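User: For a benchmark we're assembling, each entry needs the component sequences followed by a predicted structure for the full assembly. Here are entry 17's components. Please fill in the structure.
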Amino acid sequence: MNCREAERLLEPFFDGELDGRLMREAALHITRCQSCERDLQQKERLHDLLSEVIVGEAESSDLASLWSGIQAGIAGDAVPAGAIATEVGPLRMRLGRRRGGRSVERASRASRGRSVARRVSAAAGLGAVALVGLGVFLLFPGEQDLEGHEPLAERPELNAQREPTRLADESRAAPEAAAARGASPMVAQRSSQARSGVEAVALGPVRDSERLWSDWPQQVSAGPLDYNDHFMSLWRETTAR
Amino acid sequence: MAGETRDWDLVQRAGGGDQDAFRELVEKYQRRVLGVVTGMLHDREAALEVTQETFIKAYRSISGFKGDASFYTWIYRIAVNLAIDHQRREWRRPTGNSVRSSPGQEGGAPDDILDRLRDESPGADPFQATKDAELRERVRRAIDDLTPDHRAVILLREVEGLSYEEISQVMQCSKGTVMSRLHYARKKLQAQLEEFV
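Assistant: Structure for entry 17:
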């Protein structure tokens, strides 16, 4: 066996992955070849270094609270999916505090902005719906049943015409579309958060209305009716304020 | 083999809702899972968090574990995937904590390093302690420079001592891919840590 052949076997030899015959041949070569022996020694020192550094770090970690955190997470199975991110126990909460300074400040600023933006968007929303309704009425006067103007959610025949894939595309395009149609920054921001799906983790416990937005992609992928349910619940909530 | 039989028994009981059985599995494997995740993330607190999430996820899906592989290769798979996901989230976070700059870790100003060494090992030779700290930092940096897949493979082999077959089960790739990743990772680490190995 020459060095070129041995080179391929050196690594599995070191890792104890060679069978009997190849193991013996490789061992024989290494005892006769200084270069391969040096290579093997380097691998051994690398192994020692990695083990020492990594094992040392892991051993210095305190695992005392791990089980209680796991238990809390397991108990969180009963909690609705949107809230689970805040229910996984002490370690996550501690991590939240570590990152807390900036997060709390940001959340507080966002909260102040949201309360003003919510009123503005409610008014803007009312106006927009009135305008859309008027536009649809003017464009298709013959197709409208003015007496039975039930919500879209109660009209599956309309929803059935909309394909889920198209709705998913709309969901992905939601932030841009929101910005393009001049929606309030809150709406654009929420659309963006809905797309990335990170809000529930970043801001901790969320209110129902916020969760609606966070859950938007799931709602969309669940089908057209859910999409309209989602929109109507949000709409009722906004107009109730 | 007896250990695996015992694991399988615990897995089945845990699948039936026996939390004591699951706790036994956690206590048996928590340190090893933490070792791999710490190596992947270079952040003790995040590593603890991911270790915790690993076991929560394992408990939730334990009824889906059919015993085709060992419990520990299954749990390593969950841990490695969660660690990679965590790292991707960290990289995407625009102003979030960088793994390398997280508090309580290696690195930082020389004075900080010395202070930390005094706290960690009072009475030790400061010169030797500084050299050790530098070595640890260099090793850490070399590991961090690997891709997550290469990092996972080298840690599973060098720190956890898994066989190629077991690593291929954890990483869900062929043994050939494991060998190739291991070879590449070792070459790169040897080059970066040339003066120490």
